[in-house]
Write a structure and sequence with these properties.
single chain; about 35% helix; about 350 residues; seven-stranded mixed beta sheet; binds S-adenosyl-L-homocysteine; binds N,N-dimethyl-L-histidine
């Protein structure tokens, strides 16, 4: 049986943050212990790993936003153009939408076009944004307040890989769940299907999922997107060690690592690594013990998958969504899948 534990206000660490907008910063100690265990296990695996959710503290979220504006990083602008073109059509497929729920909302700049299309259709949507980064949620709030102050906003600071709690759905209308940016590609297939299945548990039959996915394209273009000339992605990657240090009180020195991000053609994915520039011993702090690294040893920090259309449709179908529409950018680099929830499970859970 799960041990009951007190809660305490956390001043630092991965999830909570003082800059949090209208979000509580209470963290269960069980959750914290589980996160430390997860991190320790990931570092003990071969290859060694650190989950990519550790990329997103305040600085990481700001760096990601910079990445989205780099000339090499094509996914954001490609998806934005698609959403601007197709927002009306998407909203019509989901009519009438009341609740827009977004996972990993980030700065949510792209989401505004969906919200605007709902407003133009006479709807009054509530926007629920779920993100692990308080900084990202604060940016979402600011962008939304500037662009569409009439939309009511509910930020949820949470790790969706561990739990997904959503506010009760309002009466009437449908729920439209957005999972954009190609973030689904940061998970292996099994985890991706598990996450989407968990989303489905919150939905009624006929609710809608809109999933953005990066597609297989020219390997050189993909490689450049994760190896930008200004080194912003390298900084983003290395900052993950600062996030881990703050959370686990470990002693990783980011300056002792190189950013390495090859596109692995056979696996159709970018793999981001941090590679030790020299031999070192890292004190793992609250994870307990030490990590011995030799020069050249790597820690994998992210995978970013490229899909073909049928992979995406199969994935949403496996999670309980009937594929309804596929929208692809003219250059074939990005796709949006719209699926209808087959779920009638919500009342039974
Ligand atoms: N959807 C935005 C942001 C993508 S970046 C866009 O398309 O530009 C990925 C976002 O997901 C970040 O804001 C990050 O903080 C959030 N995120 C990553 N892992 C998460 C997790 N496990 N739980 C909740 N949010 C997560
Ligand atoms: C959030 N996610 C979809 C980004 C990606 O492209 O996989 C994260 C990122 N990693 C390096 N650059 C951007």
């Amino acid at each position: 049986m799960a041990r009951r534990s007190p809660v305490r206000r956390e001043k630092r660490g991965l999830l909570p943050h003082p800059s949090s907008p209208r979000t509580a910063t209470v963290v269960s100690l069980d959750a914290e212990a589980a996160a430390l265990r997860e991190l320790r296990e990931a570092l003990s695996r071969r290859p060694r790993e650190i989950p990519c959710k550790y990329l997103y503290d305040d600085r990481g979220s700001a760096l990601f936003e910079q990445i989205t504006r780099l000339p090499e990083y094509y996914p954001t602008r490609t998806e934005r153009a698609l959403l601007m073109d197709c927002a009306q059509e998407i909203v019509k497929s989901a009519y009438p939408v009341y609740d827009v729920v977004e996972l990993g909302s980030g700065a949510a700049e792209k989401t505004v076009s969906i919200l605007e299309a709902i407003l133009a259709d006479g709807g009054r949507p509530r926007y629920v944004a779920v993100d692990i980064s308080a900084h990202a949620l604060a940016r979402t709030r600011d962008i939304l307040a500037a662009a569409r102050p009439e939309v009511s906003f509910e930020p949820i600071l949470a790790d969706y890989s561990r739990e997904l709690r959503l506010p009760a759905r309002p009466k009437g209308g449908r729920r439209l769940v957005l999972f954009l940016g190609g973030t689904i590609g940061n998970d292996e297939d099994a985890q991706a299907v598990q996450l989407l299945s968990r989303v489905r548990e919150h939905l009624d039959s006929g609710d809608v999922l809109l999933l953005g996915a990066n597609l297989v394209t020219d390997p050189a273009a993909i490689h450049a997107a994760y190896n930008d000339a200004r080194g912003v992605t390298a900084e983003f990657n290395k900052n993950l060690l600062n996030v881990v240090n703050a959370f686990a009180r470990s002693s990783f020195d980011p300056a002792k690592f190189d950013h390495h991000a090859p596109y692995v053609v056979g696996k159709r994915r970018i793999e981001m690594w941090l590679v030790a520039r020299q031999a070192m011993q890292v004190d793992l702090g609250r994870m307990k013990g030490r990590l011995a690294l030799r020069k050249g040893d790597g820690i994998r920090t992210e995978i970013s998958r490229r899909f073909v259309r049928d992979d995406v449709l199969r994935m949403i179908d496996a999670a309980g969504f009937t594929p309804e529409r596929w929208i692809e950018s003219p250059d074939g680099r990005f796709g949006l899948a719209l699926g209808l929830s087959r779920s009638a499970l919500r009342g039974l859970l």
